Every structure is written in C-alpha cells, then in structure tokens.
Amino acid sequence: MNLIQQQSASYIGKLVQAKALAEGSPAHATLHALLATGGAVASNQNISASAIGGAKSSLLTNLFKTDSDATQQEQEAKLNLLAGLVTGIAVAVGQDPIEWQALYCRTHGTKHPPSDPPTLNQAILWIAKLGGYLARKHDLPPGPTVLWRGFMALHEATKMFQIMRQSD
Q: Among residues 112, 149, 151, 162, which is most buried (max CB within 10 A)?
C-alpha cells in the first residue's frame, strides 16, 4: 500500500506542477484526504483522522505561504483562519486521549500522564513549545510556523507513545 500511496502522491504533485490542480485548493486537499483514507483502510487505522490529516497538510501549506500582494485585511483573515484551525486541532487533542497524553508526557518528560486532559490554552502552549516557542514573559503569541512544527513533533510523539504503551 505504501508504494501505491507514494505513486498517488507523486501523481497529485505532477497535477500541481502541470497547473491542472491548484496547490492548497479544496480539490487538492480532497485528493490527499482520499489518499490518506485508502491508506488508513489498508492498515486498519482511524479513517477520519487520516482523512483530516491528509487534507490539513494540503490546506495548511497554502495558508503558510506568504502573499506579498495580500491586503492587511486578507492577511488578518488568514491569521484568524489559522487561529481557528489551531483551536479546533487543540480541542481534538482533548478528544483523543492518546494524543493529549502523549503531549503531556513529551512536554513534561514523564511516562505517566494525569487523568484529566489539559485546558485548550495549555495544549496550545505545549504544542507551541514542541515547535520551538520559548514562552518568555515578553514573547508574542506563537505563530503558525512554530505551531506547525509543534504539531509535527506531536504526531511523532504520539506514535512513539503508542509504541511504548503496547510494550507495557
């Protein structure tokens, strides 16, 4: 299945290069979501999480691009959309115990998570710290790049947490 997914992703990339598909467009995100869903079915994984993951990478790639022609209002709308996405993802962390437990253990350097999930603000701060945010007294709130890096680190930490939990 991995080979088929790699070939399919390569084909999607070729469609983007040929300008037959706009990167970050809804169609682009949908193709990546369908591709991820197929992989999830084949490997007996969570289908909805895979679809969301496949789509979000495509959409977030488009959001992180800097557009020098964008107006101040368009840039602000983009940041508001990103903030909404981050909030939604952070809320989702609270819904899947394995993710928030992995987040807690990774940021606190422990094997034993608490019984209660973190607050939304705490989860966002921990994700930002995974992405390199220092959280000093006079620092601005974490930006999209730091949060994206944090989500990537959380993904890896969650996978490792699952592996370690299987051996217990």
A: 151
Rounded (10°) CA dihedral 54, 60, 65, 68: 140
Give whole-number Cα distances, 73 to 48, 101, 143, in Å.
33, 38, 18
Nearest of 45, 44, 63 to residue 151 by alpha carbon: 63
Whether 103 and 93 have beta carbons less than 8 Å apart is answered as yes
- Which pLDDT score is estimated for 92? 54
| pLDDT tens figures, 47-99 | 556 666 666 666 666 665 666 677 777 776 766 666 666 555 555 555 568 88
